[in-house]
Amino acid sequence: MSMAGPTSFFEVGHRAMSAQLVRMNTAASNLANAGSVAGSEDQAYRPMRTVFEQELDRASGLSSVRVGGVVREDVAPTRRHDPGHPLADENGDVWEAPVDENAEMVEMLEASRQYRNMVEALSTAKQLMLETMRMK
Question: How far is CA 68 from the centre of its chain?
Answer without folding.
Answer: 11
